[in-house]
């Protein structure tokens, strides 16, 4: 399988559409350095960089620094101690062309206590924590930059790379945690995000939209007393019935395309409580006592800011229709990911990528269904700059033990990226 793909990659060098010697050099460089980049990926994966492992995140950042500085990048580490996180790596390569922002992240969901810690290769398939999300994407960036340098197209390229250290669990306050990424997006002409490639049954898709991700907390209260009095004018319905009414109202009244509103944790009783992190709930009670308190937490995912605002208003309207002798409060957590809303600019960027695909002899990529993608850092820049996501490696099982990638996808993704970035920075139509 791997030999076959390498042969196809070499055949691409003969395509007449690739008239420029520089582009041919980029393709051949990616193929020639494939084993080097697999080795880099293995070393990165074997360093634990769970979001809360601050030293591990910094260590992976230093590995990337060692790759980019020899290519002429000015690399700096932006410390994020005030947000409770390690920090971000920002690398700049000033040039004469359009500024192209490349986005990825250094952290993973696998903290040091996870049993899943090691890179394992089996032919063209490899598993490991964060191998696709997002260390494979970071390696694609490195491979593309090396190919551009070999071809001489990096010399005048205007490239900014932002690799966050807390994509999986953003630090607070958000205004500081994403300050530098947002600023880079406002200065860029194009933004490319290197999270996992959407690929199904051997067909690759382009990501021109992602939904948001925000957390909500719902707390209900009621009068407590002997259960023989439930539903009467004195006690009313209690906190749990009020909670059930609201959540069922969400289920019945909110559905619309590209919207989800999951309930992740719930507790009710006399009393019920939730921890400061919002993950663990406790409750106690008896069958003959009307519940005084109920708590639920969930997430909300929308495709556009307008949809987000509208749905939040509708949720609040459902909450406000209280059962007798109950009350409820709905709140949304600080931060979260804004949507990467679909736009003409994003679609035009996919068209530019498809021009590259045609020249490389690869199939064109259709837009991927945003309802099937998670949120990402691209959402923080998409309101300011045309953005294309999912330019990392192909694989599966992200965020779970056994996360895997197709190592051969590292070749085609690095080739696509090198040619696309070169053309974008040069201002080619």
Automatic annotation (TrEMBL):
InterPro entries: ArgE/DapE_CS, Bact_exopeptidase_dim_dom, Peptidase_M20, Peptidase_M20_dimer, Peptidase_M20A. This is Glutamate carboxypeptidase. Its cofactor is Zn(2+). One of its GO terms (molecular function) is carboxypeptidase activity. Residues 1-19 form the signal peptide. Its EC number is 3.4.17.11. Pfam families: M20_dimer (PF07687), Peptidase_M20 (PF01546). Transmembrane segments: none annotated. The keyword Cell membrane does not apply. The lineage of its organism: Bacteria, Pseudomonadati, Pseudomonadota, Alphaproteobacteria, Caulobacterales. PROSITE patterns: ARGE_DAPE_CPG2_1. PANTHER family: ACETYLORNITHINE DEACETYLASE, ARGE_DAPE-RELATED DEACYLASE. Residues 208-326 form the Peptidase M20 dimerisation domain. The keyword Nucleus does not apply. Keywords: Carboxypeptidase, Hydrolase, Metal-binding, Protease, Signal, Zinc. It comes from Brevundimonas variabilis.
